[in-house]
């Protein structure tokens, strides 16, 4: 790391601290460590969860992502550091392409997952048809690709609620089953969307 990447501040004590997980390398140190070990940053960091982690895992410089998305570098860095995405729909799509993110990953890193969860909750608990346009606008998929997943989720939820009400246990059991289903709503949505492709 010192010879190949110019990281003269790195000592054996740094490496030992990282190995013991009492300290962590910063982004540049992680990239240099991966290079020294002949692996990718993703191999060292596990499953990325944030926008910053996805970029680092792929070894893409911040300037390249900002350029691909069409955002000023400083604005992009600010969004990455804050975890709050403020780009428009076209920039979100460009971000997904630049980082190779799935729809679920893209929604998680841009902070739109909560909004999607609210829309899906309304769709499964009322008339799903009334919410298809809002879901279409949010996720950027065609209406024809959303009808099946929304119909399936609505049926699953309504069947679950009515089925548990008729069993012994009544409303309390129904409420627990319903909450459990709603907690898994967003992953279930992406699973159904993926199956349709």
From TrEMBL:
<feature type="domain" description="HTH cro/C1-type">
    <location>
        <begin position="1"/>
        <end position="44"/>
    </location>
</feature>
<protein>
    <recommendedName>
        <fullName>HTH cro/C1-type domain-containing protein</fullName>
    </recommendedName>
</protein>
<feature type="domain" description="HTH cro/C1-type">
    <location>
        <begin position="50"/>
        <end position="106"/>
    </location>
</feature>
<dbReference type="InterPro" id="IPR001387">
    <property type="entry name" value="Cro/C1-type_HTH"/>
</dbReference>
